[in-house]
Amino acid sequence: MTANPPDLRPDLAQARLAETRRPGQPTIGMVSLGCPKALVDSERILTRLRAEGYGISPDYAGADAVIVNTCGFLDSAKAESLEAIGEALDANGRVIVTGCLGAEPEYITGAHPKVLAVTGPHQYEQVLDAVHAAVPPAPDPFVDLLPASGVTLTPRHYSYLKISEGCNHKCRFCVIPDMRGKLASRPHRAVMREAEKLVEAGVKELLVISQDTSAYLTDQERLGEEAPITRLARDLGSLGAWVRLHYVYPYPHVRQLIPLMAEGLVLPYLDIPFQHAHPETLKRMARPAAAARTLDEIAAWRAICPEIALRSTFIVGYPGETEAEFQTLLDWLEEARLDRVGCFKYENVAGARSNALPDHVPEEVKEERWHRFMEKAQAISEAKLAETVGRRLEVIVDEVDAEAATCRTKADAPEIDGCLFIDAGHEGLSPGDVVTVEVDEAGDYDLWGRRI
Ligand code: SF4
């Protein structure tokens, strides 16, 4: 539901992708919209193109054609995608569209008839075919070396690791299963090989993503005593990098992961979208409706791994949500005291079954509930961060400039959570360094600390 910040758009990420273009080298630009999963797709496409001898242009002007990887999850994301396609057409003129919105080609060609080709989500071969047709390859075997880690659009010290595609759930507000299909897991071996290559290439933090991380490999094997995600998390943890788990659906077997966090094999961080807490709302969403048991589950996780940070996302203003249901959500949040929280106002998405539900909530009520929810979430975040003042924490350095080093604690995922700033004695630090700090100040979402 979120868009990548503009500095992750390759057309703007000059420093990361700028490279010397050899004479005659065909060159492609890429605009990557949407969630981290779409970013991984963009990285894969660029990796393949780079391997075939294409240059990657950091701007529109230097590109022979531009790929726009779109997001079609919400109507606002669709509008943003159409806008990005229009911008690329104006600036470059030769545009290939891929990604989630590519599943609706007429929607794109209706607005932008001049695009060269439209391909759907993870149709890598078709995107490459479209690129080959628009800008034929001109390989040079002596200079076209694929970097060991592939091309990444994220900074070198962390990398997303996609373990599966698609989802077998049928949440009513979500069209991902229609767009991305049923769960299809990558083999354990293939994921491990990619992770090992990334770590060998200097990656210090692996961000495990998928649409449904805890369902990993359940499309191919039965859930035995140890869930396949537990096995994978343990093996990834043995590589020596930080391992962070995203998009973990609340299955009972999630509790197998918590001891790995307590042991330090996997970061004590669980990104687990709960979406709501009232059983009736959850039922209308077609989500597991056991919020009270979820509180017990959270208490059990915290008993095993007290430093676990819980991140979740919620939807307010879902069709039929009464004031009482919303109040239950607020009370639940107060009790659950989650560390990181994202909140979306419900929006109709073309094709979603929730559109047809009765009693849609007026926009101004959604807005008001969103503010009340965020106010509570912020107060919890502020109180929890205040508790860290005086504590010693390990942090990873993301960026260093003259004024400060911007770092993250183990409780902060890049791009979506807060930061810890070291504004004195940060000279000599480099991105990817892991150092210990003592926290000396806390804000609503960020911390400040000094090296010890
Ligand atoms: S689990 Fe996630 S991806 Fe799957 S249908 Fe529900 S919201 Fe969509």
From TrEMBL:
<keyword id="KW-0963">Cytoplasm</keyword>
<dbReference type="InterPro" id="IPR006638">
    <property type="entry name" value="Elp3/MiaA/NifB-like_rSAM"/>
</dbReference>
<comment type="similarity">
    <text>Belongs to the methylthiotransferase family. RimO subfamily.</text>
</comment>
<keyword id="KW-0408">Iron</keyword>
<feature type="domain" description="TRAM">
    <location>
        <begin position="386"/>
        <end position="452"/>
    </location>
</feature>
<feature type="binding site">
    <location>
        <position position="71"/>
    </location>
    <ligand>
        <name>[4Fe-4S] cluster 1</name>
    </ligand>
</feature>
<feature type="domain" description="Radical SAM core">
    <location>
        <begin position="153"/>
        <end position="383"/>
    </location>
</feature>
<dbReference type="InterPro" id="IPR038135">
    <property type="entry name" value="Methylthiotransferase_N_sf"/>
</dbReference>
<dbReference type="GO" id="GO:0035599">
    <property type="term" value="F:aspartic acid methylthiotransferase activity"/>
</dbReference>
<keyword id="KW-0479">Metal-binding</keyword>
<keyword id="KW-0808">Transferase</keyword>
<dbReference type="InterPro" id="IPR005840">
    <property type="entry name" value="Ribosomal_uS12_MeSTrfase_RimO"/>
</dbReference>
<dbReference type="Pfam" id="PF18693">
    <property type="entry name" value="TRAM_2"/>
</dbReference>
<dbReference type="GO" id="GO:0005840">
    <property type="term" value="C:ribosome"/>
</dbReference>
<dbReference type="GO" id="GO:0005829">
    <property type="term" value="C:cytosol"/>
</dbReference>
<keyword id="KW-0689">Ribosomal protein</keyword>
<dbReference type="InterPro" id="IPR005839">
    <property type="entry name" value="Methylthiotransferase"/>
</dbReference>
<protein>
    <recommendedName>
        <fullName>Ribosomal protein uS12 methylthiotransferase RimO</fullName>
        <ecNumber>2.8.4.4</ecNumber>
    </recommendedName>
</protein>
<dbReference type="InterPro" id="IPR058240">
    <property type="entry name" value="rSAM_sf"/>
</dbReference>
<feature type="binding site">
    <location>
        <position position="35"/>
    </location>
    <ligand>
        <name>[4Fe-4S] cluster 1</name>
    </ligand>
</feature>
<dbReference type="GO" id="GO:0051539">
    <property type="term" value="F:4 iron, 4 sulfur cluster binding"/>
</dbReference>
<keyword id="KW-0949">S-adenosyl-L-methionine</keyword>
<feature type="binding site">
    <location>
        <position position="167"/>
    </location>
    <ligand>
        <name>[4Fe-4S] cluster 2</name>
    </ligand>
</feature>
<dbReference type="GO" id="GO:0046872">
    <property type="term" value="F:metal ion binding"/>
</dbReference>
<feature type="domain" description="MTTase N-terminal">
    <location>
        <begin position="26"/>
        <end position="136"/>
    </location>
</feature>
<dbReference type="Pfam" id="PF00919">
    <property type="entry name" value="UPF0004"/>
</dbReference>
<feature type="binding site">
    <location>
        <position position="171"/>
    </location>
    <ligand>
        <name>[4Fe-4S] cluster 2</name>
    </ligand>
</feature>
<dbReference type="InterPro" id="IPR012340">
    <property type="entry name" value="NA-bd_OB-fold"/>
</dbReference>
<dbReference type="GO" id="GO:0006400">
    <property type="term" value="P:tRNA modification"/>
</dbReference>
<keyword id="KW-0687">Ribonucleoprotein</keyword>
<comment type="function">
    <text>Catalyzes the methylthiolation of an aspartic acid residue of ribosomal protein uS12.</text>
</comment>
<keyword id="KW-0004">4Fe-4S</keyword>
<dbReference type="GO" id="GO:0103039">
    <property type="term" value="F:protein methylthiotransferase activity"/>
</dbReference>
<keyword id="KW-0411">Iron-sulfur</keyword>
<dbReference type="InterPro" id="IPR002792">
    <property type="entry name" value="TRAM_dom"/>
</dbReference>
<dbReference type="Pfam" id="PF04055">
    <property type="entry name" value="Radical_SAM"/>
</dbReference>
<feature type="binding site">
    <location>
        <position position="100"/>
    </location>
    <ligand>
        <name>[4Fe-4S] cluster 1</name>
    </ligand>
</feature>
<feature type="binding site">
    <location>
        <position position="174"/>
    </location>
    <ligand>
        <name>[4Fe-4S] cluster 2</name>
    </ligand>
</feature>
<dbReference type="InterPro" id="IPR007197">
    <property type="entry name" value="rSAM"/>
</dbReference>
<dbReference type="InterPro" id="IPR023404">
    <property type="entry name" value="rSAM_horseshoe"/>
</dbReference>
<dbReference type="InterPro" id="IPR013848">
    <property type="entry name" value="Methylthiotransferase_N"/>
</dbReference>
